[in-house]
Specification:
This protein has 20 helices and 15 strands. The longest helix has 31 residues, at 14-44. 44% of the residues lie in helices and 13% in strands. α3 packs parallel to α4 (101-110) and α12 packs parallel to α18. It is of the alpha/beta class and 461 residues long.
Length: 461
Amino acid sequence: NRSTVAKPSLFPSFNTRIVLALYRLIWAVCLPLVLFFLYWRGKKEPAYFKFLAERFGRHKLRDKSHIWIHAVSLGEVRSAVPLIKRLLLDDTPVVTTHFTPAGRSAIMRLFPDAVADGRLTACYVPFDYSAAFRRFFKAFRPVYGLVMEVEFWPGMIMSSRKYGVPLYLCNGQYPSRSFERDQQRFFSRAKIVPGFAGVMVKSELQAARFRMLGIDRVAITGEMRFDQPIPQAHIAAARTFRTAAMGARPVITMASMVVGEDVSALDMIAQVQSQFVQRGLEKPLFIYAPRAPERFDVVAEIIAEKSLSYAKRSDVLDALLQIKSETGNAKTDIAKIDINGLDIVLGDSLGEMYFYLELCDLAIVGGGFCPKGSHNISEPLCLRKPVIIGPNDYTIEFPAREALAYGVCLQLDFSQIIDQLINHPLQFASDEQMTAFLDAHSGGTAKTLAALDDFMHPTSR
């Protein structure tokens, strides 16, 4: 889907030029503070302060021009994985940039062969000023750049324009609260967005917002997260675990629960368990997966205070996701912990969300039960699991609005969830509804490449 709008006659405007000059001055003054921040973060996570030269754009010169993808951290890397896989099939090498060690190391882990043979380079993004990007561009000579999701950096955008690198927003969105807030400010990201050579967005709603900002190249390409590879080892382990330890017991996974949601969520679980017991029904097992690892022990304490029976994933399963036993032999039938006697399994691990989601009949995704906004629901939907989110969905307008319309997602508060779980089937969406939704919204990678080709090689209309 393509649509165009007349572009403002002057970009950047006079006011924007003034603020950009101030922005450059702030960078010059505050660069020592940025370096101190990285040094301080490096005390806890040394990778933050390693490879410091990359943050100044310093690299050895490459023989070939590269395709440049900017994925600031782990979430954006996950979105970019299908696209990177497709681009690596061609002859042009790829360079990815990241701000966090998590994003940089994820690329190294996901594409070890491509990194080893030089087809793919992962590095830190240059500091957001012209000289750093000039060095980066000189080293990699990007054919074009793709910025994932919502990264609108003035220095990056203006440097790309200055040095003739077409820069496109990919899998893009402009969340409603940010969009409304930025319209009220004298200078904001909204003023710099027209500097993109084009944008590829998730939905018509997002396209309309970028048109309002003066973008004359807009393509609706959907959500590339629906094209993410699913770790089949996790899927197989989940099916084995459920058959061996849970039988026909209903399972609900509460994924990416954040600070401010735990007490209400656990009160909801306690009420649901009580209602099921009173009705003579087998109560569901809840898989509870906090968003951040530093919260694992905190959440365990809250669960204990609620007098809910629980075990940690690390107590139940070994590193290969096999059931631990009294003898220490994962292949024996004598389980160390009786799963069926529990109310909750606490997911105290990282990188195993597909395992937790494959276990369930229904997924409840956190973030939206507090003002922070819901986390992405693409993973459970890819596994064909119906989803419940909280009232605050502004962070995932796509695909939440579309999923609600197709009937594969519900938007409820905790009190409404209690009624839903007690009085309705956990798997409230039919196979036909789920198939229709996925058929309509998959294929984002192919749509992105088609739009990019159209942007780079426009045809006469």
